[in-house]
Write a structure and sequence with these properties.
Elements (H helix, E strand, L loop, with lengths): L18 H10 L5 E6 L2 H10 L4 E3 L1 H9 L9 H12 L6 E4 L7 H14 L3 E5 L18 H18 L4 E6 L1 H5 L1 H13 L4 E4 L5 H11 L4 E4 L11 H7 L3 E4 L4 H18 L10 H7 L2 H10 L9
Parallel strand pairs: 1-2, 1-8, 2-3, 3-4, 4-5, 5-6, 6-7, 7-8
Helix pairs in contact: 4-5, 5-6
């Protein structure tokens, strides 16, 4: 089945709503709740769009795995991340929240990174307080920068957004919980809020009580929950997360994990039996339709082209 782009919301007073403006409106609505699957490339994003999610999340771990074939140890560069973000954001008007890691340097670099994400068309980004030699937030041994450097990172993001005249949503993520404890993590989130970040993100929440506490301590500032299965955070479903008070839940491995299992099973079958047995919807036509085949043919025909007639 072809995945149709989600239409832009329109206003009688102006042009179609930009995805960043839509994401901002969604997180500011106390009655709204956003469930965003992690996507790591154009195909996984197309599948998620076809299912009908109202927002997508570009996972840094998935980007590193898919583009570099490496573990999430801060190895993906700004060009790696921006290239992937641009691809994902270009597929539809559905808001995309994208991982921006540590910002890739000092304040000038953070500002440059923010500008690059804005140009890429993402609706939101999250920046964190780990040191440059960062790692997945659900691995051990994390280290974080000092409060002054953290404040400067957030301030640089906000200033870059202002200069660009953008609505991009800035999410402040702290990884201080593991190393410095809960109160220090809360203090860092409060600093980010003071500097103009739009949403908070406490990485590595350890139990449901801590989930409820952070939502209460930061209220009414909207909070995002990172649901990494088999990480340090216990699994919480959509209904529970919403009842706790989170405004958004991201599932970074929602496409990467199933893709790994399916690819491994298929390849093991090929090695064992010498063939791959796929259902008809996985043939060329079916896969290409997921990737917008019919839409591309229609665009060509409407322009008077005949290159793809009869495809």
């Amino acid at each position: 089945m072809e995945s149709e782009p989600v239409p832009l919301l329109t206003s009688t007073d102006g042009p179609p709503e930009h995805p960043a403006a839509r994401l901002r409106r969604m997180i500011e609505d106390p009655n709204a709740f956003i469930l965003a699957p992690g996507v790591y490339d154009g195909f996984s994003a197309r599948v998620a769009l076809g299912v009908g999610f109202e927002a997508l999340y570009m996972t840094g771990a998935g980007t590193t795995a898919s583009r570099l074939g490496r573990a999430d140890l801060g190895l993906a560069s700004l060009p790696d991340m921006v290239a992937n973000a641009s691809t994902l954001a270009s597929l539809s008007s559905t808001p995309l929240l994208a991982d921006m890691d540590t910002g890739y340097g000092g304040p000038v670099a953070v500002a440059r990174s923010t500008e690059a994400y804005i140009r890429a068309g993402v609706a939101g980004l999250h920046i964190e307080d780990q040191v440059a030699e960062k790692r997945c937030g659900h691995l051990g041994g994390k280290r974080v920068v000092g409060m002054g450097e953290w404040r400067a990172r957030v301030r640089a993001c906000v200033a870059a957004r202002r200069r660009a005249g953008s609505d991009i949503v800035i999410v402040a993520r702290t990884d201080a919980l593991q190393l410095l404890g809960y109160q220090s993590a809360v203090e860092r989130l409060r600093v980010a809020r003071e500097e103009g970040a739009d949403m908070g993100f406490l990485e590595g929440v350890r139990n449901e009580g801590e989930m409820r506490q952070i939502v209460a301590d930061m209220f009414p500032w909207p909070m995002v929950l990172n649901m990494v299965e088999h990480g340090v955070t216990p699994r919480v479903g959509r209904k529970k997360a919403r009842s706790i008070g989170f405004r958004m839940v991201i599932w970074p491995f929602a496409t990467l994990g199933p893709a790994y299992l399916a690819m491994r099973e298929g390849l093991e079958g090929l090695k064992r039996e010498g063939e791959v047995r796929l259902p008809v919807e996985c043939g060329p036509r079916g896969i290409f339709e997921v990737c917008g085949l019919e839409e591309d043919i229609r665009v060509d025909e409407e322009a008077g082209g005949e290159a793809f007639r009869g495809v």
